[in-house]
Structure formats: C-alpha cells, structure tokens
Amino acid sequence: MSEQFSDGICGGWSPVMPVTLEVIKICLEVRHSIEERVENKTDSKIFIPLVYSSQTVAGKNYLVKVLLDGKEDGLCVHAKIYQALPCHEGKLSVTGTHFPKTFYDPLIPF
Predict the structure, then answer these.
(1) Which UniProt keywords apply (predicted)?
(2) Strand order from edge to edge, sheet including 17-18
(3) Cα(first)–Cα(last) distance of the chain, in Å?
(4) Domain annotation for the chain: domains and CATH numbers
(5) How far apart are CA 38 and CA 77, in angstroms?
(6) CA triple 83-7-99, angle to 5 deg
(7) What pLDDT, in 10s, does the model give residues 10-56?
(8) What angle do CA 76, 29, 93 make, to 5 degrees?
C-alpha cells in the first residue's frame, strides 16, 4: 500500500501506517458502531483493521481502513474515530465512515 499523506503542520494527518495494538483495541471498542453504519450492506463476520493515520486535535482522530470480507476485491470501510482527551475520560466515537471501499482504495482524510 502506497498511501502517504501529511501536510506537515500541527493538526495534520500522519502518514498511513500498519495498525498498532492500540489502534486494533480502539477499533474493537467501536466495532458495533462501525458495523451499524454499514448494516444490511454486508453480512460478513470479518473485521480486520489494516492501516491507519492519526491527527492530534483537542483529542485524537484516527482514520482506519477495516477489511470486512475476504472476497476478491476485499470489501472495506474507512472509519474516522475520535478519542477525547483523558480529562474527558478518553471516550471513543465514530464520527464518519466511507463505504463501500476496496482493499486497494487509498485511505484519504474526510
């Protein structure tokens, strides 16, 4: 995957990287919310976070590509997840999704 972007300024998005254990845990915590947004559009039980980018704001935004099936093009969803600051209990919320996407679609901020 050759997805790379960063505007090089404070608040800009990081380069796209393979997911970390921390990002996998975040995705699993909000899995239900992501699946609700693509409900009735896929019956897959697969949910594999692949790559992500992050943005530090008053909290942190994560943009994550999640694989939802193992078919030829690899049906994916691009999910934007916001993590509040620790003083606000670090709550997680899904603030947007782009669906359907394929495994090959680049992860682009939205």
Answers:
(1) Protease inhibitor, Thiol protease inhibitor
(2) 17-18, 48-57, 59-67, 75-83, 92-102
(3) 19
(4) 17-102 (3.10.450)
(5) 8
(6) 55
(7) 679 999 999 999 999 999 999 999 999 987 566 678 999 999 999 99
(8) 80
Integer Cα distance of 65 and 52 in angstroms = 6
User: What tens digit of pLDDT does each residue of 67-97 get?
Assistant: 998 788 899 999 999 999 999 999 999 999 9
Residue with tokens 């030829």: 72
State how far the alpha carbon of 42 is from the alpha carbons of 8, 36, 77, 104, 107, in Å.
37, 10, 11, 18, 20
Q: Is the pTM of this model over 0.85?
A: yes
Residue holding tokens 């970390």?
20
DSSP letters, 7-36, are -SSTTPPPPPEEPPHHHHHHHHHTHHHHHH
Listing DSSP states for 77-88 in one string gives: EEEEEEE--GGG
- Relative to beta strand 17-18, strand 48-57 is antiparallel
